[in-house]
Amino acid sequence: MYANDGFRELDRQESLRLLTTVPVGRVVHTRRALPAVLPVNFSLDTDGCVVVRTSAASELARAVDGAVVAFEADQVDMRAYSGWSVVVTGRATVVSDPAEHDRLTREGPASWVPSPADEVFLRIEPELVTGRRLVGGRTLYGLDLAG
After folding, report:
1. What is the pLDDT of residues 4-20, one digit of tens each?
2. Each residue of 93-107: b (16+ CB within 10 Å) or e?
3. Which end of the chain is more exposed for a tag (fewer CB within 10 A), N or C?
4. What are the chain's domains?
5. Tens of pLDDT, residues 80-128
6. With b meaning 16 or more CB within 10 Å and e meaning fewer, what string describes 32-46?
């Protein structure tokens, strides 16, 4: 489906596939009744859940456990004026099952910063998945945007 704004809506399957192609996204949550955005590295689990690794003492772990959050990742090619953006909305929970924690330690996202032994994994259930791809590349309505 094409929108008249130059973007094409992506289906759930294509949106989740695109998430596997980038290492960094952003978790959007509420802090003191205001939106807060934190960049994170992540992975997509086999069931389509977004998995984030963080310290148990982190602001993120405390703020989102049990809350509905949004997760956004994208890729943009500034030279070609093209790209895509995917948003996953759902409930975030701290993984509490020891066997699941052990599995994610082996298969989940790696930690990018030295962290204490009290790392946790946050799982975001993909209740709503939306994606958009910029179509048309460097031209819009027949005009060359590159100049």
Report:
1. 567 899 999 999 999 99
2. bbbeeeeeeeebeee
3. C
4. 7-136 (2.30.110.10)
5. 778 999 999 999 999 999 999 999 989 999 877 766 668 899 999 999 9
6. eeeeeebebbbbbbe
